[in-house]
């Protein structure tokens, strides 16, 4: 369930475009006006606004926003204004230039989106960066990390609900054997996680727990700093438990000493039109405080207002 709140009576596109232009004029930018429009329009409406703005004023709305806004607020508005597949391409490109925690971003994009969404993100990557996502992942990674990340970002999983229980039982045993032995780079483990449909992997994970008594995520919890194990765990979480995974990312980004704005911005911008309502409920249950209150405590100004608007909790 999305958290985005779109008014029942949406102003005309022309009115939205004129109001945005008005927000940029004068001595100071009217950030509240920008938030009142962009934070309450869905992806299709934002696409039309961006097209109409370019036609009317001869300038990409993103460039206008970039000139007028700054810091975390600018990044949040920019990511939000991009179309979902453009946004994923942008985030993926950023991730290929970094390492460590950036692996998580690539896995998020590869595993929490639908197969069609992933294809669209790869196409957007081609169009924007004049090369493939796979090319950049291969260039910036090595060894076992390259193998699994390349397979994940290039995957096109079956998206139906059909499940083969015989296969689920046999592959649950394979996963248990490899994880128990800490053989995280095993080809069979990689094959299962990078090719099976989400429904099939969910059945396999359920069979794993029924057969061996433990949740596979718990079996992947260790105190070591094995990055490959962490990638495998994130892969499974994003495929099977995305709302739980994103609640954890938000919790960790807010509860640290000093807010990790990059993660907070990314999750809100990418999940507000998908499942943020469920994530909010999980956050409240887990932390005994609403996500809105947590955000209001750790952020401020226009950045805070935009975040709260996107999670549908402006009265926090």
Shape: globular
Radius of gyration, taken over Cα atoms and rounded to an integer in Å: 21 Å
Protein structure class: mainly alpha
Extended strand count: 0
Mean pLDDT: 94
Helix run count: 20
Largest sheet: none
Strand content: under 5%
Cα distance spanning the termini: 20 Å
* SSE string, helices as H and strands as E: HHHHHHHHHHHHHHHHHHHH
Query: Low-confidence parts, pLDDT < 50 over ≥5 residues?
Result: none
Kindly state the percentage of residues in helix. over 70%
Task: Compile the SSE list and pairings.
Elements: H1 13-24, H2 31-38, H3 43-57, H4 61-68, H5 71-81, H6 84-96, H7 102-112, H8 115-129, H9 133-140, H10 143-153, H11 165-180, H12 187-195, H13 198-212, H14 216-219, H15 227-240, H16 242-255, H17 261-271, H18 276-287, H19 291-298, H20 301-310
Description:
By secondary structure, the chain is an all-alpha fold. Helices cover 71% and strands 0% of the residues. The protein has 20 helices and no strands. It has helices spanning 13-24, 31-38, 43-57, 61-68, 71-81, 84-96, 102-112, 115-129, 133-140, 143-153, 165-180, 187-195, 198-212, 216-219, 227-240, 242-255, 261-271, 276-287, 291-298, 301-310. The longest helix is centred in the middle third of the chain and has 16 residues, at 165-180. It is globular. The chain starts with 12 loop residues before the first helix and ends in a 6-residue tail after the last helix.
